[in-house]
Amino acid sequence: MSSALIRLENISVQRDERDILRHVDFALDAKEIVTLIGPNGAGKSTLIKILLGIMSPNKGTVHFSKKLKMAYVPQKFNPSTSLPLRVQDLLDLEICTATLREEIIRDTGIQKLQSSKVQQLSGGERQRVLLARALLRQPDILVLDEPMQGLDIQSEAELYEYVRSLPERYGCAVLMVSHDLQWVMQGTHRVVCLNKHICCSGLPESIQQHPEYQAIFGTQRMFYQHHHNHCGHSDHAEPCTHDPRPHIHPEPKV
Amino acid sequence: MMEWLQLLLPAWMMGTLLVFLTAPLGCLMLWRRMSFFADTMAHGTLLGVAIAGVLHLPLWLGVGCLAALLVAILWILHDSRLPNDALLALCSATLLCSGLLLIQQLPSLRPELLSYLFGDLLSIEWADLPLFAVVIAAALVVLYRSWSAQIQIAIDPDIAMSEGVNAHWQRLIFMLLLALFTVLALRAVGSLLMGALLVIPALSARLLANSPKQMVIWAFILAQIGVTVGLWSSAALDIATGLSIVLCMSLCFAIIFMAQKLKNRSQSV
Fold first, then answer.
1. What single string gives the DSSP state of each residue in A194-215?
2. Do B161 and A53 lie within an 8 Å CB cutoff?
3. pLDDT digits (tens), chain A, 254 positions
4. B212 touching A, CB under 8 A?
5. CATH number assigned to the domain covering A4-82+134-232
6. Treating both helix axes as pointing N-terminal to C-terminal, what angle do B129-145 and B2-31 enclose, rounded to 10 degrees?
7. Is pTM, for the whole model, over 0.90?
8. Structural domain boundaries of chain A?
9. B80 inside 8 A of chain A by CB
């Protein structure tokens, strides 16, 4: 436990006399990919907000191993339309080297969105831009709250692959909230199932045996499916440079 | 002509200086959806003036007390059933009425009432300007240092907070800057019109800008035009300066708005 980047101890949250979280312990190690699953209203977003320091718990403590750099891709993102903001202005707020910036912009497939207005992006485009922005920070911990919204199936698979490669490439730990059991089984190092308290946590394979998990998600098994050579598909509108490293293709022009 | 210049030049300098603050502050106010708050604060200055009159305090201290009072009131009034903008409208009306009532009871202030309401830029003298310039420069330094944090909060408060921005602190800084602006603008445009000085150039700038920086620059240019044209036309046409400045800014907005609509229509035809 001592190697954990961040450790949440005995966290309880009440709002309007309702329990949101009860006695939750949670820790995240460096370069670890953890997925948080649980039914609606289980307190997933609350737990994330406590970890990020956006909310403080009614009880319990958060321990940091050092001064951590966080990056957050929220579920909802609606900046005021009175703010004129292009994608490039949003990305300009993060200071990093030009090479890294170029690489991340390419890998998230947002080259062509640079001068688009942030408020006018489609759901999928917005997720890509937010992910790119978060990565430009070069965080220790990347937190993704249901990042698959608005992505088509192709991009979704690519996003999984990309996220899975992030700890190796950029040295960050990833904490992701997901409803997608497919991702849970093939993408994560560890799964934490939350329903106001931690129901169970462990390797994707073992967690499916757990009675509390089965009570929430049923007993249907998911199998690991890994696609190699994912650039091999020919139906994509955009030509690909066939970078061997995982990346997300830009959305095809309609 | 020289007499005119003697009268108008300090007023114009003052207006010009003020615009350095109104342009960025007005844009932030729009982005953070706080124009109701600014308006309430502006209307509250009248009560601040009255408090200062009753307690024999300097004007800025009276207005400062009022600003603190307003923040406290809003803090207490917080209730999820009551929409924030409506609460601000409530505060705004209450403060304005109690301010007016109190000033009418004070013989020393009563003759000045109109200038507190609509401002009297022409009463500015050369001797007032250095202090003004220093205060505005200090405010700009504060604003410059918290600028990127303010923009991050305007974009998304949750992301900003998760990445180490102290949202409460930044909100307080913004409110204090607004309070400072109301003190400075009271003599220039008065309690009723100072909200317009913030909001109209920023609104017009929004129509022209593609990025936050562009918007501040446009707001600055348009406010500068408003102050300059408004001031000189007030002298030429013999009307109140505050009114002519605000109307001039509104005219700028109307021209830009109409021009864009016409352009869009001619493009779509």
1. EESEEEEEE-HHHHTT-HHHHH
2. yes
3. 457 889 999 999 998 888 899 999 999 999 999 999 888 888 899 999 999 999 999 999 999 888 889 999 998 898 999 999 999 999 999 888 999 999 999 999 999 999 999 999 988 899 999 999 999 999 999 999 988 877 888 888 888 889 999 999 999 999 999 877 777 777 788 889 888 888 888 887 777 778 887 877 776 655 544 444 444 444 444 556 667 788 888 877 65
4. yes
5. 3.40.50.300
6. 20
7. no
8. 4-82+134-232
9. no
